[in-house]
Structures are given as structure tokens and as C-alpha cells.
Request: fold
Amino acid sequence: MPELPEVQTTVNGLKQRVVGLTITGVWSDYNSPFFKGSETIKDPVYFKRFKKEVIGKKVVSAERRAKNILINLEGNATILVHMKMTGHLMYGAYRFDMKAKKDPWKPIEPESLKDPFNRHIHLMLTFSNGKNLSLSDVRKFAKVAVVNTDVIHDSPHLLGIGPEPLDASFIFKEFIGRIHLRPNGKIKPVLMDQAIVAGIGNIYADEALWRAGIHPLERVRNISEPKTRVLFDAIKKTLARGLDFGGDSTSDYRNIDGEKGRFHENHYAYQRTGERCQKKGCKGTIRRIMIGQRSAHFCDAHQALSSKR
Reply:
């Protein structure tokens, strides 16, 4: 699932490409009986309302809240996109092949849109300049809705999300207070809980814990305050590093131009099972365990689990 760096990278691309353009057309094939009555475009009745509310509107800004993309339109309307497991937004020129039985939207340019991971288009916005914004979503898990801009942060889509870890206002005192809302929790699932802190997922939790030297199974209550401060700094540095590399394309994620990020080429822990730890002076090996339904990767030496349980 795209995490904070991938979502922010997409938002940065939207700011460069679509702000100031007017939406002239909307297409989707998400129509699903399982989402009848839902407040998303997967419900055909809602999709009709969605089209009515966004066509003819100019894009005025784009922003991120946690893992959600917010495309703000004139007239107090915001398109909310949560890319979920495999979704990613791309901008470019497409043509529609009416004869195609599958994946009818064919990319023209840029060339990077022709990456096979970019072909599963299930939502297409057309703009006043003739270009398109596509949502590729092979597993069809993504969520798209339209909400009044002035109430979107109080809407069910965003309500209850924790603070943003890269905001200057997010200080150590707040961080330690947030994670201690789950004192008996294992630190990795706590970090991934969007109600505790926004935007951190599987990859960046592993990488931040590796940097901080904390085992993913360590209980929050057993982590000392000095060590918690190290973790706080590690989270900020790891997420910033993800942004610097343009996000992580271990799976399907591509940026607004349909290109891979490079963070997956620079992991220290995630999916490096069996490899020698890269921490200077460490002789450990990266191990993999399961925590619930999710994997966790860590060094068996400098991330040793404390004797406290």
C-alpha cells in the first residue's frame, strides 16, 4: 500500500500537472454490486452524482492527509482518493480503444505510462487541455469520493486520523503521548495504526525501527524515553528519505508520470531477509517474522528484543 512518501510524491506531481485545469469528462468501470449504497464511485448511483459534481470544475489545489489524496476543486468540492493496496494516479495523454475487451485506455505519452503495471485503468478524468488523470488499480481496492471541501477533515473518510509525522508541529512530547495510548501494544503495529500517527505503513515502520534499533515486537511500555526519542527522529528521517527517493515501488506504486520511485533500492531491513545487516559495526542478519497478518523485518543483533515482556 502506498504510504506517506508515495502519497506525498503523487500530490507533488498533481500540483505541477493539474492545478488550474478544468475537468471536462469522467469515466469509470468500477461498477460493483458489492458497493451498492456506498459513498464511493464504486456505487453506480453515487458515480452519477460524482460526475455531476466534478465535471466543469477547475482544480485549485492538491494536498495530502495521511494516505489520502485531496484534489480541491472550485465550488467547495474535493475529490478524495485513497490508493489502497495497488492504486496509483498518473497524468498524460491517452486514447480510448472501443474494441478492446480489457484495459481500453491506451497511453500515448509519456512513454513511462506504457509500463505494464500502469495498464489497469478504472477511473479516468479528462481535462480542458486534452490530457488525462488515470487511476490504475489492478485489485480494484482504491476508494474515490467527492466531499464538500469545507467539511472534508470532519468527514468519515478522515475523522479519527492521528497527527502528521512530518509536520513541524509534531514534536516529541506529542509522539510519546500518542504511542502510549497503546502501552501494551507491540511497537510496529502501534506505529502503523493510523489513529496513532498518520501515514506510516509496513515498509517505513520496518525501516524506522531498524534505524532506531528497536525490535518490532517490543512493547511500547518497555521502550525507554531516550530510546523513544531515537525512534521519533528515525521516523522523521526515514519518511524524509522515502520522499527524497520519490517513494517505494516494491509493488505497484508509480508516480504521476508512471515512473518507479527508488526507495525500494535503498532498504536496510524491509524484504532483506537473510542478508547481513548494513549498520556499521553490526554482525547481525535480517530476519522476518509475522505479526498478525503482516510481516516484519529486523536485525537479530542490534534490534534485540528486551527481556521485559
Observations:
- The helical segments are 4-17, 44-54, 172-179, 187-192, 202-212, 225-244.
- The mean pLDDT is 96.
- The longest strand covers residues 87-96.
- The CA atoms of residues 140 and 195 lie 24 Å apart.
